[in-house]
Amino acid sequence: MPPSTVNGGGSDGAAVHIPVIDLSYDPGNPDTSARQLVTALRPDWADPGAKVEFTRFTDGITNTLLKAVNRREGASKEDIDNEAVLLRAYGHGTDVLIDRQRETQNHELLMQHGLAPELLARFSNGMMYRYLRGTVTTPKNLREPRVYLAVARRLAQWHATMPCVHNESAMSNGLADSTSGTCSTAMVAPNKPPPNVWTVMQKWLHALPQETEAGMLRQKTLQTEFSWLIEELSQGPGLGEYGLVFAHCDLLSGNVIIEPKAAGSPDTEETVAFIDYEYATPSPAAFDLANHFAEWGGFDCDFTVLPTRTQRREFIAEYVRTYFTLLPSKPADVDLDSEIDKMCGEVDAFRGLPGFYWGIWALIQATISQIDFNYANYAQIRLGEYWAWKAEHTGQREKSGEDLPVREKRWAEEEKV
Fold first, then answer.
1. What's residue 183's pLDDT?
2. Where in 243-294 does DSSP place strands (E)?
3. Which Pfam families match (predicted)?
4. Which of 68, 125, 143, 332 has the smallest set of CB atoms within 10 Å of its CB?
5. Are residues 113 and 154 in the same domain?
């Protein structure tokens, strides 16, 4: 059926017109349902001469991502890729984790700043957007200097140029927003306007399974830890207004694309782009960096390949220099060396939070996801990162005489390996 359109609320108040297709992707009938969606968007792809093919990407553990191409006769590979469509179908039940309306607004805002591919259409359980040419990275790629310096520059561009869009009504009346899951700033992180990474985690904590006594006890324990984390980490000055920047919050290898170089280009530096903005929200910059560093080990959580102190400083130095170069209102007297030292310290302080964040997320996924992935085990590993960091942060590990855990030991190493 032909797509209709809806007016979305752009961050600048302007109306945006996104086609909406009244169909859904069916994981039980993937080829037929995907074909119906892309031909509703591109009716000419239903012509007898069209040769529509799908490639499934399997790097994610939440959504289904398909690349659709029309291998029409006489078209070059570049032409085919330029016309290609990415179809992303949301994982079962993930609306409890993600505000889909806000995700669409984020995508539109990123498009306006040249940081996202064109959003082509929405459908009942997903979206389609223009294919971004390039090479999807692997965890091993993320550990290569040519790539991680490019990631540092791109992340700095996000943080320096993208505005944080806050929920003004929630700020003014202190009420919870049932649509976005944000709560009053007094209830979550004082002086941090919602939504932000703290309100997201509070929403997830409320969504944890509590049908059993064990579930209720676990939720209570994690809620207590969250309150402690807010006291420890939420009030740091950080970068950006209110100490928040527009953060990606999910920079795993599958969401980093190495862009192709133009033919004959003398530029030896890599450039990268980021995809999938469902977790993007205002956040301390240090969380976005620490979260990315955790992804150097991939879904296997290989702690032995996380960035050493030397590698982190190299990344952060590139990030800080780029950030202050691109910042629209750059301070006249910025001391880059001091800012690099400060950010290194903030990232160190935040290194345990990604484990807490993704640990809660995985506990919820374990109850709702239909994807073949051991979320319960993943939750245990990620929360283990958090507990190991807290034991180090509070001095409890040293007092108890226990050995330094592998992740903490790697984090303390100096050399670039």
1. 43
2. 245-247, 256-258, 272-274, 281-283
3. Choline_kinase (PF01633)
4. 332
5. no
pLDDT of res. 9: 45
Q: Which of 182, 207, 176 is nearest to 195 (CA)?
A: 182
Coil, helix or strand at residue 376: helix
Q: What H or E segment, with its residue span, contains residue 104?
A: helix 100-112
Q: Are residues 317 and 250 in the same domain?
A: yes
Residues 346 and 370 in one domain: yes
Contact of 260 with 134, CB cutoff 8 Å: yes
What distance in Å separates the CA atoms of residue 292 and residue 369, rounded to the nearest whole number?
23
The pLDDT of residue 186 is 46
Q: 360 and 330 in one domain?
A: yes
Q: Amino acid letter at 70?
A: N
Please check whether residues 125 and 177 belong to one and the same domain.
no
Q: What pLDDT was estimated at residue 415?
A: 79
Range of the domain at 262: 135-412
Predicted TM-score (pTM) of the model is 0.90
pLDDT < 70 regions, the chain: 1-16, 58-61, 168-187, 264-265, 416-417
Q: Is residue 417 assigned to a domain?
A: no
Tell me if 124 is assigned to some domain. Answer: yes
Q: Same structural domain for residues 117 and 211?
A: no
